[in-house]
Hints:
The protein is of the alpha/beta class. It contains 15 helices and 13 strands.
Amino acid sequence: MAAHPATETIAAIATAPGTGGIGIIRISGPDALALLRAVFVPRTLRSHFTSHTLYYGTIVDRQGRMLDEALAVYMLAPHTYTREDVVELHCHGSYLVLQAILRTVIAWGCRLAEPGEFTKRAFLAGRIDLTRAEAVIDLLQAQTEAGARLAANQLQGQLFDRLEAVRQRLIGFLALLEVAIDFPDDDVEIFDTTLAATQLQTGVIAPLEQLIALAEQGRIVREGVKVVIAGRPNVGKSSLLNALLREERALVTPVPGTTRDTVEERIDIHGIPVHLVDTAGIRRHEDAVEALGIERARRKLAEADLVLFVVDASAGMEPRDRELYETVREKRHLVVLNKCDLVAAGQVQALAGTFAGATVVTISARQGEGIEALQEAVYQILIAGSGFTDQIDCAPNTRHRAVLVRSVEACQRFGRAMATGAPVDLLAVEVQTALDELGDITGLTTPDEVLDAVFSQFCIGK
Ligand SMILES: Nc1nc2c(ncn2[C@@H]2O[C@H](COP(=O)(O)OP(=O)(O)OP(=O)(O)O)[C@@H](O)[C@H]2O)c(=O)[nH]1
Ligand SMILES: [Mg+2]
């Protein structure tokens, strides 16, 4: 990767907006030290700042008026976040004061950093690859402990190392193919296609497919799952949402059609974020507002990872329930028989028996019975559906997944071409394609627009 020496010095407030104990201004680039000298007056006057050492002093504006007391550190390249000279000013956490200091730094001659620009410089300088840069975003945005752990692993290079191992094998193929191209008349077969086919399957395709499978699990750990509560009006959907949340979040009344809009809340089941959606009861004869709510309910159903199909056990399956169940049954779903406090156990069991092949849970949302068993069933069905384990150590994101799929496709074309005895230069083309795709993940060959899309997800100061 070509180094991109940055000529401009950039600065930003690196801590979150709002009042905090301390607030940090980060400066990176060739003028960092000059800017430190301009705005910072160490308590003991000195002409030299030792790298990676903390100094106590005051920050002053262009007129020499004190703005804040601060600790300052100067870090000489290349042992810094960006591999450029970096200065950090650790000030008091007043956002107003931090902004005044930042204005002063900029007035002395640098510019405000763009979102993610510090991390982008670290990437462009070759200190981190793109998977590690993305791990920084994931770590900042992690919503669960498991998500943070995955991001930390990726920052340590887990994903990069796995990809690198595969890449090296592809490079091995390519090297042999190049020799075979150069010596077309050689008697000995330089490129052993039988051996290569085996190595391709076990050393390249299998590990890549494993990463693709991990991507789905990673999505669940990072973003959680969407669980939609659906059913005809009055079966107790909102009561179920409240029971799962353990609070009176949604309105519950005996009047069918109470919930007009969708209600969304988040709970955690065994560390997985679960986004619960309570929907308007779906029925035919409705007013305009309710119709909008029902339309929204249908859309939410389409997006759901799991549907909780709620039935009023005291009423049994009515034609309207059946109609709705026809659309639900094709999706990953659980049947929830509610209001079991109103009916005899035998009757509930008979009703449960009519749902062949589906998982049925019986509850009383009003009395809070069966709620834990339902949570457990939700967890189990999500595990069964995705081979999920929260013990995974590495999880490609959606961008990686798309690239992995394309790379596997190129490998499969390579495999087929070998099987049909295609000429070596054609084989080399497919291997090169597979390699280029993988290069997109680590940032080796990533086009600028992809880089821009990745780094624009950052906040300013990171
Ligand atoms: N006995 C009993 N009543 C329940 C239970 N769950 C809900 N109900 C009652 O059923 C009625 C409807 O409950 P809701 O939770 O509003 O039902 P809903 O499915 O959200 O209804 P819509 O929003 O109109 O679609 C209320 O009077 C609840 O108190 C239960 O487990 N047992
Ligand atoms: Mg409701």
